[in-house]
Amino acid sequence: MERAARSRTVGSLLILSLLLILFSAPTGNPPLAAQAVTHGAGAGRPAPNFSRADLSHRKVELNSYRGKVVLLNFWATWCGPCLTEMPTFMKWQKQYGSEKFQVIGVSMDDATAEVIATVSRLKLNYPVLMGDEYLGAAYGGVLGLPVTFLIDRDGKIRARYQGASLTRIKGDIQNLLQSH
Description:
By secondary structure, this protein is α/β, with parallel strands linked by helices. The protein has helices at 2-24, 80-96, 112-122, 133-138, 166-178, and strands at residues 36-37, 51-53, 59-61, 69-75, 101-107, 128-130, 147-151, 157-162. It has a single domain (31-178), classed as Glutaredoxin, CATH 3.40.30. It contains 5 helices and 8 strands.
């Protein structure tokens, strides 16, 4: 009897282990960090305006970019994926031109000196300003970086991207640039 009970226990554990493996296997969906959120998270609502000095002490006011497609990127110097996508943002800024398109970087770092050093090293061709919890909260909270918002010519948020999803972002930018 004891041997039969032990056999059933081992069998039950084996089945339980197989079920755990089966249900924890990848589903084929990309990780959440690579998915664009085009609903909720503010999509369709006006982008909160802000007015701050960039690292060169020039005033950056979001509403002054009306009529352009804006890519608003929250990042930090310690964020590897952030640093990886920034050269692509520079390329897009040059490719699409500042008459129709504008990238704005918002560093969520605490120390301005590190940000200035990073921007200088990368030779960014778009304005970068220092962000904080208040600016992050205005955009629905910026937890986990990078977080990027695509804002249309009318100042409405069209997409929110958590993480680097450059192919999706580029397609969405092109669609917005072609509309109007």
